[in-house]
Protein backbone atom coordinates (compact mmCIF):
# COMPACT_ATOMS: atom_id res chain seq x y z
CA UNK A 1 0.00 0.00 0.00
CA UNK A 2 1.10 3.59 -0.46
CA UNK A 3 0.36 5.86 2.52
CA UNK A 4 0.03 9.61 1.98
CA UNK A 5 -0.67 11.94 4.88
CA UNK A 6 -1.70 15.49 4.11
CA UNK A 7 -1.74 18.38 6.59
CA UNK A 8 -2.65 22.04 5.92
CA UNK A 9 1.03 22.88 5.29
CA UNK A 10 1.29 20.20 2.57
CA UNK A 11 2.45 16.61 2.21
CA UNK A 12 3.59 15.18 5.57
CA UNK A 13 4.34 11.58 4.53
CA UNK A 14 4.41 9.59 1.29
CA UNK A 15 5.78 6.04 1.46
CA UNK A 16 4.98 2.39 0.84
CA UNK A 17 3.71 0.52 3.91
CA UNK A 18 2.77 -3.06 4.78
CA UNK A 19 0.18 -2.41 7.48
CA UNK A 20 -1.68 0.50 9.10
CA UNK A 21 -3.21 0.59 12.58
CA UNK A 22 -5.52 3.54 13.23
CA UNK A 23 -8.29 4.64 15.55
CA UNK A 24 -11.59 5.85 14.15
CA UNK A 25 -14.33 7.56 16.08
CA UNK A 26 -15.94 4.07 16.32
CA UNK A 27 -12.82 2.18 17.50
CA UNK A 28 -9.48 0.84 16.31
CA UNK A 29 -8.88 -0.98 13.03
CA UNK A 30 -6.09 -2.47 10.92
CA UNK A 31 -5.56 -2.09 7.17
CA UNK A 32 -3.68 -4.68 5.13
CA UNK A 33 -3.00 -4.58 1.36
CA UNK A 34 -6.06 -6.65 0.33
CA UNK A 35 -8.49 -4.80 2.63
CA UNK A 36 -11.69 -3.54 1.01
CA UNK A 37 -11.91 0.11 -0.02
CA UNK A 38 -13.21 2.31 2.79
CA UNK A 39 -13.41 5.75 4.33
CA UNK A 40 -13.30 6.57 8.02
CA UNK A 41 -13.27 9.58 10.32
CA UNK A 42 -10.19 9.37 12.54
CA UNK A 43 -10.16 10.29 16.21
CA UNK A 44 -7.22 12.23 17.64
CA UNK A 45 -4.71 9.56 18.57
CA UNK A 46 -1.73 7.51 17.50
CA UNK A 47 -1.48 5.96 14.05
CA UNK A 48 1.00 3.13 13.59
CA UNK A 49 2.26 1.92 10.22
CA UNK A 50 4.66 -0.90 9.45
CA UNK A 51 7.19 -0.37 6.66
CA UNK A 52 10.01 -2.81 5.98
CA UNK A 53 9.06 -4.79 9.08
CA UNK A 54 9.60 -1.77 11.36
CA UNK A 55 6.72 -0.03 13.18
CA UNK A 56 6.51 3.76 12.98
CA UNK A 57 4.23 5.96 15.08
CA UNK A 58 2.50 9.29 14.43
CA UNK A 59 0.19 11.45 16.50
CA UNK A 60 -2.75 12.69 14.41
CA UNK A 61 -5.19 15.42 15.34
CA UNK A 62 -8.17 13.53 13.97
CA UNK A 63 -8.90 13.61 10.27
CA UNK A 64 -10.22 11.45 7.46
CA UNK A 65 -8.76 8.23 6.06
CA UNK A 66 -9.67 6.99 2.58
CA UNK A 67 -8.44 3.67 1.17
CA UNK A 68 -8.96 2.97 -2.52
CA UNK A 69 -7.03 0.11 -4.06
CA UNK A 70 -3.43 0.31 -2.87
CA UNK A 71 -3.67 4.04 -2.06
CA UNK A 72 -4.36 5.13 1.52
CA UNK A 73 -4.75 8.88 2.01
CA UNK A 74 -5.14 10.63 5.32
CA UNK A 75 -6.02 14.27 5.74
CA UNK A 76 -5.44 15.71 9.22
CA UNK A 77 -5.16 19.11 10.89
CA UNK A 78 -1.81 18.13 12.42
CA UNK A 79 0.63 15.21 12.44
CA UNK A 80 3.74 14.61 14.57
CA UNK A 81 6.20 11.71 14.23
CA UNK A 82 8.08 10.27 17.19
CA UNK A 83 8.32 7.59 19.83
CA UNK A 84 5.27 6.37 21.71
CA UNK A 85 6.23 8.14 24.97
CA UNK A 86 6.64 11.51 23.23
CA UNK A 87 3.46 11.11 21.21
CA UNK A 88 1.22 10.50 24.22
CA UNK A 89 1.79 14.11 25.36
CA UNK A 90 1.14 15.36 21.82
CA UNK A 91 -2.16 13.47 21.63
CA UNK A 92 -3.29 14.89 24.98
CA UNK A 93 -2.42 18.40 23.78
CA UNK A 94 -4.36 17.84 20.53
CA UNK A 95 -7.39 16.54 22.46
CA UNK A 96 -7.32 19.58 24.77
CA UNK A 97 -7.14 21.93 21.78
CA UNK A 98 -10.08 20.15 20.13
CA UNK A 99 -12.12 20.41 23.34
CA UNK A 100 -11.37 24.14 23.64
CA UNK A 101 -12.34 24.74 20.00
CA UNK A 102 -15.59 22.80 20.45
CA UNK A 103 -16.42 24.77 23.61
CA UNK A 104 -15.75 28.05 21.80
CA UNK A 105 -17.98 26.99 18.90
CA UNK A 106 -20.80 26.05 21.30
CA UNK A 107 -20.59 29.47 22.98
CA UNK A 108 -20.75 31.20 19.59
CA UNK A 109 -23.80 29.17 18.55
CA UNK A 110 -25.50 29.93 21.89
CA UNK A 111 -24.94 33.67 21.35
CA UNK A 112 -26.37 33.46 17.82
CA UNK A 113 -29.42 31.55 19.07
CA UNK A 114 -30.01 34.08 21.87
CA UNK A 115 -29.76 36.97 19.39
CA UNK A 116 -32.20 35.26 17.05
CA UNK A 117 -34.72 34.69 19.85
CA UNK A 118 -34.45 38.35 20.99
CA UNK A 119 -35.04 39.54 17.42
CA UNK A 120 -37.97 37.17 17.00
CA UNK A 121 -39.55 38.44 20.22
CA UNK A 122 -39.15 42.06 19.07
CA UNK A 123 -40.79 41.28 15.71
CA UNK A 124 -43.72 39.45 17.35
CA UNK A 125 -44.38 42.25 19.89
CA UNK A 126 -44.16 45.03 17.30
Overall description:
The protein has 126 residues and is of the alpha+beta class. It is 33% helix and 45% strand. It is built from 1 helix and 10 strands; from the N terminus they run E-E-E-E-E-E-E-E-E-E-H. The chain has one helix spanning 84-125, and strands spanning 2-7, 10-16, 19-24, 27-31, 38-42, 45-51, 54-60, 63-68, 71-75, 79-81. The strands form 2 sheets. The protein has a 5-stranded mixed beta sheet, with no helix packed on it. A 5-stranded antiparallel beta sheet has the order 4-3-6-7-10, covered by helices on one side. A hairpin with a 2-residue loop joins strand 8 and strand 9 (71-75). The longest helix has 42 residues, at 84-125. It is elongated and about 75 Å long. The termini are far apart. The relative contact order is 0.16.
**Poorly predicted sequence stretches spanning 5 or more consecutive residues:** none
Morphology call: elongated
User: How are the strands of the biggest sheet laid out side by side?
Assistant: 2-1-9-8-5
Mean pLDDT: 89
Largest sheet: 5 strands, mixed
By DSSP, the count of extended strands is 10
Tally of DSSP helical segments: 1
Q: What is the helical fraction, as a range of percent?
A: 25-40%
End-to-end distance: 65 Å
**Beta-strand content estimate:** over 45%
The SS-based structural class is: alpha+beta
Helix and strand sequence: EEEEEEEEEEH
Amino acid sequence: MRLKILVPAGLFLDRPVDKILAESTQGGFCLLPKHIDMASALAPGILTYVAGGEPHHLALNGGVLVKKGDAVRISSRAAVAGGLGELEAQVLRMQNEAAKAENSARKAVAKLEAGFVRTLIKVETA
